[in-house]
Amino acid sequence: MTTRINPSILAADFANFERELGRIATADLVHVDIMDNHFVPNLTFGLPMVERLQQVSPIPLDVHLMIDDPDRWAPGYAEAGAASVTFHAEAVADPVGLARRLREIGARAGIALKPGTAAEAYLELLPEFDQVLVMTVEPGFGGQSFMPETMPKLRLVADAVRAAGLDVWLQVDGGVTVDTIGIAAEAGADTFVAGSAVFRGVPEEQIAALRAAASSH
Ligand code: DX5
Ligand code: ZN
């Protein structure tokens, strides 16, 4: 099975993103957390930053929009060249319309579910998406603890993807470490976001350790 490790630059040095990208050359994608201080109680950066990152990053960008009104803002990130753009189910007005727009522009379309959001209503929409992000912490901050209680939901989505024969990546985000990644892999995740676990140590060593822990579950 393919294992993707997407380091989150939320845990990187904000004054040196270009240099930080050089330390994660073995990553599959770079996870970019956009927070607007409305959908989540924290603020990071927005479109101009992503446009510039896209120019300097040798690694494709995996944009996670923790913002209100993604219907209005998400297409801009796809136009900037992000490989994937994931918006929150709790914030979007027209998930299918927005996913189609993102795909038309050329990005992979992702939908994210907060820990308390049930997946059932979205299962029939799976063919419209390239990625489902099951949040394993409450979105807003790095460095929180993995919530194993989200695993039945991940398993449900994984089963639905498999049953329908779809190529939808299953992503987990929040508290992913060498100790928790196996739990998520076992439940069906194939794409793992890790912020503090990667940037806390030597990033390329951490990425290798996460990759090994995910595949040996
Ligand atoms: C949390 C963000 C995550 C965050 C993960 O709201 O969506 O991407 O960077 O950080 P860690 O890996 O430290 O939990
Ligand atoms: Zn994220």
TrEMBL record:
Record: residues binding substrate: 8, 64, 140-143, 173-175, 195-196
Annotated EC: 5.1.3.1
TM ranges: none
Source superkingdom: Bacteria
A GO BP annotation: pentose-phosphate shunt
NCBIfam families in UniProt: PRK05581.1-4 (NF004076), rpe (TIGR01163)
Protein name as it appears in the record: Ribulose-phosphate 3-epimerase
Source organism: Agromyces mediolanus (Corynebacterium mediolanum)
Originating gene: rpe
